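Input.
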Amino acid sequence: MPTLRSRRVHTTVLRLAGLLGLAALPARAGDAVFADGFDPSRWVQGYLVGYERSLLAPGDVDFRAITHLMIGRLRPLPDGSLTRDFDIDDVQGPQWATSAVAAAHAAGRKAFLMIGGAGEIDGWRSAAATPQGRDRMAAELQELVATWGVDGFDLDWEPLDTGDRGDFLALVHAIRARVPGTALTLPVGWINTNFATPDPWWGEIAPLFDRLNIMSYDMEWPADGWQSWHGSALHGESGSTPSSVSGSVAYYRASGVPAARLGIGSGFYGVCWRGVTGPRQDPGWIVGSDGQFSYAGIVQHYLTPAARRRDAVAHVPYLSSAAGLGPQGCNFLSYEDAESLADKGAWAKAQGLGSLILWTVGQGHLPDAPAGQRDPLLDAIRAGYLH
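Output.
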């Protein structure tokens, strides 16, 4: 997942409903998506993280569009043990996490624990390098299933380099042996389509996981020949903008990953550029993204009718201003809205993909909006993907 940062976001009551893409959405339906029992073939995995607990409490999560609550995070330590402070502290962290597990179960959904994340690679590598470290981690996960009642684990090992593969698989097999009935998911990287030679290894490991989920957000780069680009373009990759959701999906499918085990991601935050006013321009530089430019913050501080644009090829909105928008003076702000997520969900459904991952549901929540309008991004995903 993206680098963990803490940011408190306050939102105001929403206006500008048309700007948010809400006008094209159907009226909210009942919970018919889950009427025939839980276990849907399409998963929506929403991440809820402890360091953002001020943005959204577990009891306020809208589970109508979430099938799996991904609760983060445990951090792997070199001896194979796991921290349980959830980026809060050793007392309140477990209390917050168990309340999130309880909220998911009360809604009839699944509760997973996220392990790792950006910056935790040294712990992963040390823990997985010895039989003792692997067994200790597997035993701790077994204990969490028994005592907390969690339904699965998200093994967020990043980056998963070629040299890591042997130890990584040894760890996965140790976990499977300890908790054979527990679900496992694996976040995987997006693909630079200039270097997209399929790798059969992904297809070989796919049976070990319930889902392999592409972290298809923050897919831009302000250097190395790239032009300015969107954080999560559905289509439209080129030699100087070599990323898209569809391009990454094509790579993993060609590598042998079944569509039903493959997922794509959406970031509920934007990417702020200066020096350019839209995509496919140069030079430019990035001011910030995850944790600094939440969807809620964009709505409050940056979104204006005059600045709003839409990239019809990439299927995403963006904001453009030569003068600069909001507190950070963004000239180009790429983000997701209800319309882009409806498009992305419908595309994923048509491709037979097994999941969407959302980083993070707290950044998309609008607490001061009227009841029924506080999670427009989730509403769009429900309409486009789950129905």
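The CA atoms of residues 29 and 299 lie 25 Å apart.
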